[in-house]
UniProtKB/TrEMBL annotation:
Any one GO cellular component localisation term in the record: membrane
Source organism superkingdom: Eukaryota
Molecular function per GO: transmembrane transporter activity
Entry keyword Transport: yes
Pfam family, one: Sugar_tr
UniProt subcellular location: Membrane
Name used for this protein in its record: Inositol transporter 1-like
Source species of the chain: Trifolium medium
Database matches in SUPFAM superfamilies: MFS general substrate transporter (SSF103473)
Length: 91
């Protein structure tokens, strides 16, 4: 029974080893050459330029957001604060 349930997980794990990283993640980590090579496998040259420009703009916005976030901002939302305390209580 365990083998039947575990077989799809093993297959998925093996397939995931060959998947490329997310181009957005690569852009955020300043690995732009790798991101462009991943995108070039997906898009044509014309569309590739648009995607690179979009990812550049999004990564700049993301970096600006990260500079303005503090740890105490998490606790301002009631839902997130409650989820945090429930999770901490379950530990």
């Amino acid at each position: 029974m365990l083998g039947v349930a575990g077989l799809p997980a093993v297959i998925q794990f093996c397939v995931m080893l060959f998947l490329p990283e997310s181009p957005r993640w690569l852009f955020l980590k300043n690995r732009k050459d790798e991101a462009i090579s991943v995108l070039s496998n997906i898009y044509t040259y014309e569309r590739l330029e648009d995607e690179v420009n979009y990812l550049t703009a999004v990564s700049e916005q993301e970096m600006q957001k990260r500079k303005n976030i503090r740890y105490m901002d998490v606790f301002r939302s009631v839902e997130i604060r409650n989820a945090f305390f429930v999770g901490a209580g379950l530990q």
